[in-house]
Structures are given as structure tokens and as C-alpha cells.
Amino acid sequence: MKNIKKILIAFMMFIGITVSAQKTSKFSVVTKGVATSIIFDKDDAKVVEIASEILSEDILKVSNSKVLLNSGSSKNVIIAGTIGESKWIDDLISNNKIDVSKVKDKWETYSIQVVNNPTKEIDKALVVVGSDRRATAFGLLEISRMIGVSPWEWWADVTPAKQKELVLKVEAKIYGSPSVKYRGIFLNDEDWGLQRWAALNFEPETGDIGPKTYAKVFELVLRLRANTLWPAMHSCTAPFYSYPKNKQVADDYAIVVGTSHCEPMLCNINSEWESKKMGEWRYDNNETSIKELFKDRTKETNGFESMYTMGMRGEHDSPMIVGEDDSDSQMKLLEKVVSDQRNILDLNSGKNKEDVPQIFIPYKEVLTYYQGGMELPEDISLVWTDDNYGYIRQLSTPEEQLRSGGAGIYYHTSYWGRPHDYLWLNSTNPVLMWEEMSKAYEFKSRNLWILNCGDIKPHEYNIELFLDMAWNMDNFKESTQVKEHHTNWASREFGNENAEEITALMYNYYQLAFQRRPEFMAWSEVEPVTKSGKTELTQIHYADEVSKRIESYSKLIDKVEDLYTDVAVNRKDAFYQLIYYPVIGASSLNNKWLYKYKNEFVAKQGRKSAISFGQKSLDAFSRIEKETNYYNTKLNKGKWNHIMNMAPRFLPVFSKPVVASASQNNNLALGLALEGYEMEMNEEIINSYADVLPVFNAYTKSTYFIDVFLKGEGTLNWEAKPKADWIKISKTKGTLNNGKLEERLFVTIDWAKVPVGDNKKEAPLGHDFQLIPPSFKVNSAIEFISNNKVQAIGVSVFNPKLKELENFKGFVEDKGFVSINAEHFLRKKAGKNANWKVLEGVGYSGNVSVALPRTVASEVSISAIKKNSPVLEYDFYTFNFGKANVVVQAVPTHAFYEEKGVRCAVSIDDAEPVIVDFQTFGRDDEWKQNVLKNATQKQAKQIINKAGKHTLKIWMVDPGVMIDQVLIDLGGKKESYAFPKETKM
Question: Which residues belong to any copy of the Gylcosyl hydrolase 115 C-terminal domain (predicted)?
Fold first, then answer.
């Protein structure tokens, strides 16, 4: 009983149900090995029977007790039905046994309640009442969740825990209506997984994604309280309507079938349009043939729940071809297409066109036509899209929000196309998806939410989050609720004892993927496909970004392997699919490239360790092969064979690495390479300048690395001797040989022992901190001794002990820059109608600052900004003065609509605010780099008039802009991928 209570409470928390003080009732689903019966009206919708069968199978899986459907003499039964469609339910209503006033005539709304003596023959019933057929099915599957069955029981092998007794505590409450009317998924880019799996494994009798596969997809959709599907549409898959049974199965499961932006009127142009027989796919010169296709499909789908995509594009997701090559002609032609399509619906759908769900998707060039003034009937729903990388292009204006057809969103967590695909793993940050969808919801996009989830696997968690938000957005008002959702999800799937650790692991996974998706690690592009390029990650500055990323992924691997051993046996297959494979896959693909970059870098320095790094790169590639083979051939006895492809489209990023080897040097010697230098330390090269570490700053407590490596053949002992007692080295002696070719040492300072520098002089403008005057520095050295040779590395410490900084709480200059994470403001001041808020779980720093609410007016004049806008303030201290670049990094979102922007304003001290604008247009190179990096950067020139304390201010111009990091560059910033770590006191 205690376990049942825990499960129920955890479940209710997970789906966002508030447990009120209302009285709850007990209901026994299974008692002493005997299960309840499920009763429904055979004349009710087919989906009610299907959901009853699913629930009965779930109860059997949990309890080993068989449930009888519409039979048996049980005094304890589950009664399920739809108002007006079920005699059982209608009799209960007429006999005043149940109150359905809050359910009746609502959209997809249901109640679950315990009723005593519902009839003379039944003592107690758990009654599921649905306002419509889907609502009843949702109610039955809600009970499945209550008894501990995951929606992913089949699709991710989340085997339910066995329980002898199943007793529920049920609160009489109302579920629904959903926040978004139509909610579902789009099966896309199925060539590499879902189609092959269905054709070769699950549905070989069809050799395709056919009715058997769709039935399992539809079941998943129902379990996730969704109602819509856009079927697979690539040419490798036969069109959905080419299998007559597909539409019948969809209707049996009460699923609304729609189609993507390039499939007008439920027609799959990729495969259904035969140019040789039907002519060109051009409405300007082949209108009659195209209209015939539209008419035939409308007649074929008459009587089925469908959603029609209006308008048209060219073949294969290309722009529409027209005779007149000007936007006005194209727009007018598109208006005619829509008008003709609506006439076809009027004549052939069996309904008035206004009563048929219709959508118009302003995607790519179609958005241009719409923005150019295209007239569109207002009962058609506008479905806005993201830019394919998770950033919604546009939302409804206040005027558009009044349209009777409302609006919706088509969103991607998988994509094939420019600038680069991400088809393999799910790497979309859940908090980013929440932020974009909550923004859409705020701007009244509530009619349709569709998620392009590729092959379903491995997008399981994000699919559920997306659909849970669509079901009840009230449960997701804060960014922190996404983390709560993930923790509850992990608890349901893998137990309370592992939930928080799994969530922390996956948040780290998404954080690293946000900085660079695994599929983007080759620095290559597609369409056309380019070879791998030079990484932007630095190996010489800021603690070596390549090594730091390797270290981060190594921690993920260690953690996921530890958790895998702890997971219950009945959940190991699920853990492998939902957690283990994505983490190992992302880590290994990263390591393959990161070690390759290491291999190339050290080979240029002549290090023998190039061989070792090259082997680690090859090992990472082999790990991907090994795990993918296990996924396909071993996991759950080969159930998922062919579902997982480690190299979609066989792009360069997935290829086996080609590694470099260093030139041979037979002279045994110790090699030294210091942080900050491309080349190794070499006394034989005149003016190599590679013999001094970057300056240690007392206010940022710097740490720097030195690589010691073997040159030549043999064994070499080395020793490091600091020339001052305040210099600390992670290791002072060691041995190098073929078993250990190199080692990285870390140098720190004992600040309690270091002498105080002379702080009477000011540092000169624009100094390089490598060249600080002796009065500002304390200088010493580290001597490296090996093979009777001494090599000295300079160590300089900046330690002025300024009284002004004794109790300073802000940021401080370090080597010519100040680095700030935007959430670490010292003060914030509210504006007239808005204020800054921190969103947790997204951005390079892990959190971003955003001005909310998003519906507040933009402030575009400097006077209005100063008067009305909320402002963030950051105190910082510089040892320089003069010209500075304030570089602001934001998450690369788009303007809400044309009249809005993506702007903020910055100033230092009392200077006038300078507006910076992050908006991009179309698919230009700036946008490409932004989405590959999940970051956009803009600069503002400022003057720092003196050394000392200053204040940076960031003002709202447009609400909703997500400020991630800020760098105040006085000339010292070195080339790197990300900003240096914060220079906070």
C-alpha cells in the first residue's frame, strides 16, 4: 500500500496534478490475484475498445492477473465511455450517479471517479467519462500510468515493476481541456532508422512503414495524451494513403492525420506526383491535374479526422515554380491555390470548409509571400515554424492573434539540411524548447503543436516534454519546472534513488550539446557537403578548450557507466536506450574529433604522443560502432535491429578518423609546451617567446598548464624546481618513456606567501599583461632538469593588494579583459512594465537573463530606454583605461514578428546606452554560424575613462532577448571558441 501511494503521488506530481484537500477514494484494480473487469459499450468509438485492451494488457504485465473485457461477474469494475456514445455512461448520468457538467461538450476532457453501487449488479466502479472518444481513451490510459506503466513501455522497453496488489487512491477531478487543441509528432527523415527497422524487422510482410508500425506509433501518441500525426513522407517510404488500411488504423486510434508544409491537401508530392503521367508540378500551367489530385484525396479522406495543409510548394521541399519570377505574381498564384483548395473541401469533404481543420505554414519562401501581404481566410490556422535549429522564426502579431483559426507551431528536434544535419542523437536543450514553446503559447499559438522528432528514437524524453507542455502549459510556467519534470520522468522510469543523478547527468549532456551539437564537431557543412574544417576550439588559451571538453565528456562516460550498473535489471534496456546510448554516443563522437584535434596539434610540435591521441580518436570511433551494433543486434534480443544508424547520410563528421604521426627525433630530450603558445619551448629558436607562463592574477586566482613530453627514444627522468616557495606545481618529478609519452602539469600560486607588488603606478593603456612593468609584477621561475639540462620557465604574478578591492564583490580585469556571466548581476532595476529574470538550464553559462513579460512594448529611443527599461548592473574593476569593446553574447532567437527586434542596450558608467541588435535575416552566413554555435555576439564601443571601479549596464530594448555572457575587451582577449571563464572576485 505504501508503495502504491508513493507511485501515485510521484505520478501526480509528474503530470502536474495538484493534490487538493478533496476526499479521495480507494479502488482495487487487483486484489489477491484477481483483477477487475473493464466494461465499455461496443457501440462506443473503436478507440475506447483499443484503450481498454491496452489497459487490460498493462494490468496483466504489472500483476500477472488477467482482466476480462465486458464479461465476468466482478463486483468491482472499471466502466469507461464517452458521453452520448456509451449506454453505460448515459445511464449513470440519467440516474444521477455521476456529474458530468464540467466534462460535457468540452474538448478532450475526462474525469476518473469512484462510484459506489453504480448499478444493482455492481458494488463499486472506477468510472472513466470522456467528453469525446479521445478523452475516454486518455482516461483509460491514465489508469495505466497510475499503476506504474510508462508511456514508453513498448517504445523504450520500460518494463513495469511487478505488483501483487493494485489499489489506487483516486481523487474525483477533471482532466483537461488541453492547453493546445491539436498535439502531435512528425515522422521525418526516416530513411536511416524507422523505415529500415519497419521494413527489415518489425513489418517485413509490408516491407515498409505500414499499418502495423503505425498502430504502435498511434498507441504511443495516445499514451502521451496527443492526437495528431504527420506521417513519414520521404520517397523511401510508400505514401501514407497508398496503404488503405493506414487511414482506417488512424481512425481506430482516433488520430488526426495531417501533413507537412510541402504536402498540400494530404498529398505526398515526393512519391504521389508522377510528372510523366500528370505533367509538371506547376499550378500556373497544370492547374487541372493538380486539382484532380487534391479532389481525389479529399474524397478518399471524407469521414476521417484530417487536417489539411493549404497552399503548395515545389517538389522535394523546394520553392514553388511559377511562370512569373516576381514575388507579387507568386503571392497571387498562392492565393488562388488556397481558394481552389477550399472550394474542393466545400464540395468533397462532407463538411463546410470552415468546419474542416486547415493549416497554412509560412515556411521558407512561403513566409516571404505571407509577409508581403498575401490574403488568407482567417479560419485557416497559421502554423509558425522554427528555423530548423530550435528558434521560432515568427509569431502572431496582436492582430493575427484574433484570427478565428488561431495559430500553431511546427518545431524541430531533428533536421536534415543547411548548414548541417543533426539526425543521429537528440541534442536539443529541453529548457530552450520550453522557452520557445512558452513564448509561442504566450503569443496565442495554441491550435496545433507538431514536433519533428525524426525516427522517434532517441528523442523520447523531448517528445514527452513537448507533449506534456501542450497538454497543460500551466505546469510549465518557470524554467525550473523543466528540471522538475525531468526528475519526475527519471524517477518514473528508473526509480527515486537514481532520478536526481540522472537529471544532473542529462543536464550536463544538454549543456555540452548546446555549446556544440555532436554532429557539428567536424566544423563542416552540407548542401553542398564540405570536408571537415579547422576547429575554433583553442588548445593554447584559457586552459585548453579541447582538453576541457574531453574532460567533461569523460566525466559523463564515467557517470553513465556507474548508473548503468545501479539500474534495476528490468529497466536496463530502457536505461540503455533513453540515457546510456545517447550519452556514450555524444561523448564518443566528441572524443573522436577532440582527440583528432589533439593528435594534429601535438604532431605539429613533433610530440610522439600524437600516436596516443590518434589511437584514442580511433578508439572513440570504435566505441560508437560497438554500441550501435549492440543497440541494433543485441538489445532486447534484436527488437530494434536497424533502428539506429551511427552515420546518417554518411557525412564527414561520422567517418573513421585519419590521424597524423609526428616526425621522428632520435635525440632523447625533454619537451616543454606552455599554455599560451602555439609552439613548444625551444631555446634554439631565437625570440621564440614560448618560455613564460601567462601572468597569474591575485584577483582571479589563475591556474596554467605546462606539458612535459618525451622527445627521442628511451627513458627520461625529469624534475621541476620552483625558484620561489609560492609557486605550486601539481607534480615536481616524473619519468617519461614509451608507456607515458607526456604529462600535463598545473601551476598555481600560494597567495598567502607571494610578495605584494608595487601598486603605486598605474598600468599603461592597452598593455599586454605579459608585459606588465616590473613594479606591478613579482617575477620568478620554474627550472626543469632532465638529462643534465636545465630549462627555465618564467613565472610572473600580479599581486598589488589594492585597498579598493578589499571588499569588492564584482568582476575584475584579467590580462586585458573582464568576463561576466549575465545571471551574476550585482543589481537589477525594474522598468515601467518589465523586469529581468534568470532562466535556469540554458546558455553557455547554464543560465541566461531575460526581460519579461515578452508582451511588453519595446523601448527604441535612448530617452525611453533610460526612463522605462529594466536594467542589469555589473560592477567591475580595471587596471587599464581607454577604448573597450563590450561583446554581448545572446541565445540566437528571432524577433516575435516584423515590428519587433532582438535588441538590448549597453553602457559603462554614465555613458549613453548603445543599442546592439542580434537579429538575422533569412539563412545568411551569420545565421548559419549562430545556429551551429547556439550563440550570437554583438559589440558596442565604450570608453573607460580611468583605471578603477566601473559599472556595466544592460538595458532592455526588446523583451525576451536571452543574454548569456558579456566580455569587456580592453585588447587582451585571445582567440577562442567560448568566452574565458568569469573573472569574478
Answer: 810-982
